[in-house]
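$ fold --in a.seq
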Amino acid sequence: MPHPNTDSWALSRLEDLKDTARKLSIEILFANLADQDIPAQSGYCKVRGEDLILIDTRLPIPRQIEVILDILRRFDLEDIYVASWIRERLENPELTGFQS
C-alpha cells in the first residue's frame, strides 16, 4: 500500500467513502463553493428529499475525507459492507488524519 501521505493513497480512501455513500443512496457533489451565488460550505443537506453531501474542492483531500466521515457517522452502516478502515474510523472518532 502506498505511503499514507501520497495523493493516490488519499484518493483511494476518498473512493472508498464514495462507495459507502452510494450504498446508502447518498450523493456526493464536489464543487468549488467559492463560485456559488449562495454562500455554502461542505456538509450534509437534503435536496428534494434526497441525501446530499456537498464537498468544497478547495479543501485538501484529507479534510474532504474527514468531512465525509463525520457525516457518515449519522447513518446506520450495520447492514452494508464498509471498508475496514472506515468502520474503524467511525467507531473511534478520536482517530484523526491518516492514523488508521
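$ fold --in b.seq
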Amino acid sequence: MSTVLEDYLNTAQAADVIGCSDAHVRYMLINKLMKGKKVSGRTWMVHRREAEKIAGTEHTVGRPRRRDQ
C-alpha cells in the first residue's frame, strides 16, 4: 500500500517519466496543459498517473508540413 506522497512527483521526476525537461513540465502546469498542485513558491507536485498519461500521448514535433497546391 502506498502513501499519498508516493503517488506525487516533483517537476524533475515528472520530466523523467514524460521524457522532457522540468522547465517544460512547469510550462505545461502554468498553462493548464497538465494537472498539478503548486505547494509553495515554485514547487509543483504532479500525480504519477497524470505524468504517465502525458507520457503515453503521441506528440508531433517540428514545423508543420507545407500543403501541396
